[in-house]
Specification:
The chain is of the alpha+beta class. The radius of gyration is 27 Å and the shape is globular.
Length: 741
Amino acid sequence: MKQSLKKLAVAFVLLFVILTDTQAQQSKKGLQTTKNIQGAAVNKAAWIWYPGDLDIWVSNKMQNRRTERAAFLPPFWKMDSHYVLVEFHKEFNLAAAEEVNLYVEGQYNVKLDGHAFMGYPKKITVPAGKHKLSLKVYGQDKVPAIFVQGKTIVSDDTWLATFEDKEWIDESGRASDNSGTTYVSAGSWDLTDPLSRPSSFKLSTTPMAAVKTEKVGKGFISDFGKETFGFIKLHGLKGKGKLNIYYGESREEALSADKCETLDLLEIDMKGKRDSLIELSKAFRYVNVQPEGSVALDKVSMLYEYAPVTEKGSFKSSDEQLNKIYDISKYTFHLNTREFFIDGIKRDRWVWSGDAYQSYLMNYYSFNESPIVKRTLLAQRGKDPVTAHINTIMDYSFYWFLGIYDYYQYSGDQKFVQDIYPRMKSLMDYVLNRRNKDGLLEWMPGDWIFIDWADKLSKDGEVSFEQLLFCRSLETMALCAEMSKDKEAATEYRKLAADLKAKIFKLYWDESKNALVHSRINGKPTDNVTRYANMFGIFFDYFSPSQKEGVKKHVLMNDNVKKITTPYMRFYELEALCAMGEQSYVLKQIKDYWGGMLDLGATSFWEEYNPDKKGVEHLAMYGRPFGKSLCHAWGASPIYLLGKYYLGVKPLTPGYETYVVEPSLGGLEWMEGKVPTPAGEISLYCSKKEIRVKADEGVGVLRFKSITKPVVKGGEAVEVGKRTYEIKLEKGIQYLVSYKK
């Protein structure tokens, strides 16, 4: 996202399937050409549904698993549901008659050229020639979905779907009654096993034992060695009475029966020994098990639950502490990569847009799993009509828009942008209708202006931070409208963005402060300067070079401006400094901040870290002694910073059709790593004397500084500025550069 919004193109997108262990093995077969009963080769089919519906259905199930001290704690925003009646169809032109197998979730009918088959057929024959195959499916308790498998007739996202009864819609896709209803491309997660139905979708699990157990009270406390997530298994459980289980991300939390955030209070009546699995997955490191009555058990273990993603990105350097920070960041991020990108594994376990936005960026430099990004964006958006901001938070609606731009930049998946554009447009209509008389946004009933967890941070009036995000979202809308061939809207969005940008600098820029002020109240700018709008203005490239330098000196590196203590906004503050070439300064900040958590024994990174706190104060938040999440996705931002600003790899046009590699050691002796791309990876080694780089796709530029003319094996260095050189990179070629830092 932090690239110029003018650089766009199209590239290939990777697909990824999250399945159970058994399903994962089946999906490996399904990714290849499959076989029908007779053994003839057939095209791959996948389960399909109305786009966004399975995303919404699964996210509803996931987000409503949250408990707080055994009490059900659902999200506080509007939750949409799937369409209960969906029609799917596609036209085929067959050279020969074809036998087709049908698998359906829900009640259904099947029509060929408008003529219905009797009953619920599991197999049909389609004659040679041009035909239209249609299935209409009803499902109240699960998402209507189909899996169609013939030799050439297969279900995939080229099928069309509608939730309305519009069988008279013509081939152009527009209803003959001029209602404006159109068919849309079917949704799919590449679930390629017809026997693994979408409603049975779940993550993978693997057994894991505790590393240490010690007696406490009438029971024991088990330590799993690090922060983890899964289902507790009770071994050799027997007796009659109660079994109280207290979970803790810290030992102190697990030992606090009255204040721990999650627990299970079980009634037991078992005559013989039995193993039992707790139904609801939870986050913990420590598990405190206390029996009452005659209840006894031998031990506890767990089924670790995880998304089976592949770690494609990597980073290693001469600094061992930094290497550990990177490794713990990836572990933290993996724990929070579930069916969707969530905020934290203890709480809230919800799909928050601001948290997810940062996860997308980390994903592009680690797993690069496009399907999870798309699922999360669709689940967050839900259905029309729009009645509130995403998660009820104004800034979170804007992060949603920006997440779509980022996804396109890193994947090149133009089809997804076109498919989701109508939902973008209706959300932006909602935002535009909430502007005040000056064309700005401020709090209105039903809104939550979040920005950051910070004491005494004013949200009153027209906050400059919100206007910047609004402006960037309008720019994004203009680009997506162009891709969707909505030229009139593109022109309007472009004008709105330009007008708003000019207004921001007219109303908020204070020359004497070298900064954008925080807000306007009653039409007058305040004197307050905060870091938020100013750091975003740098990587949005909204400031002139002199303004950037002024902001860096007078805001970002000024201790008199209130410091940021959450990893959430440290992410953007450090990105702004990296964008200004301050990698040496940022490296020290990373080591101090994230290293500070490691020094306190962190095995995953936290929701908030304030080095001024002591002891158990670090565990408290929201007025609760153990309210803080000790495994929060936004704590994993070094993944992104190290990949984009130290390895220096970033796409210039979508899908890495063109890219730049601009390594910056920032005080390191050497570093090496890989950045995943849609069709492979870009690998880099960099020391003060040597650079090695190789890419699997696209055309790139290696840009670096040298005080002597570099010697290049595999290419030619061209001097483009004072002591600055560039080398053109072609795919598949290993470049070796000898230079002097």
